[in-house]
Automatic annotation (TrEMBL):
It comes from the Bacteria. The lineage of its organism: Bacteria, Pseudomonadati, Pseudomonadota, Gammaproteobacteria, Chromatiales. This is Uncharacterized protein.
């Protein structure tokens, strides 16, 4: 029994190690802003991790940001990082929780 339990714990730890910690559901405007700021950094660096981050949060971003979120998704998917960054800069002032 102890061996089976340890095998289960080891398997779960392996799975948890592969999960992206930023792929959690944003629960507040502060969380959403944090994700968008991270996305901005990737876009500024022309880093393709922008695509991974955006895909991890696509549903939340599009539901919370509407048309702007849909545009952002399309631009990032098309690797139009400069245009995506312009769109993101317009979104960010509206996500500060005020």
């Amino acid at each position: 029994m102890d061996e089976q339990l340890q095998a289960l714990v080891d398997a779960l730890q392996g799975i948890l190690a592969t999960l992206d910690p930023v792929a959690t559901l944003p629960s507040s405007s502060e969380d959403l802003t944090s994700i968008l700021l991270q996305l901005r950094g990737y876009l500024e660096e022309n880093n393709t991790r922008a695509n991974d981050l955006l895909e991890s949060h696509r549903a939340q971003l599009t539901s919370r940001l509407g048309d702007s979120g849909n545009r952002l998704v399309r631009l990032v998917r098309d690797f139009e990082y400069d245009a995506a960054l312009d769109t993101l800069q317009k979104i960010l002032p509206h996500t500060d929780g005020h």
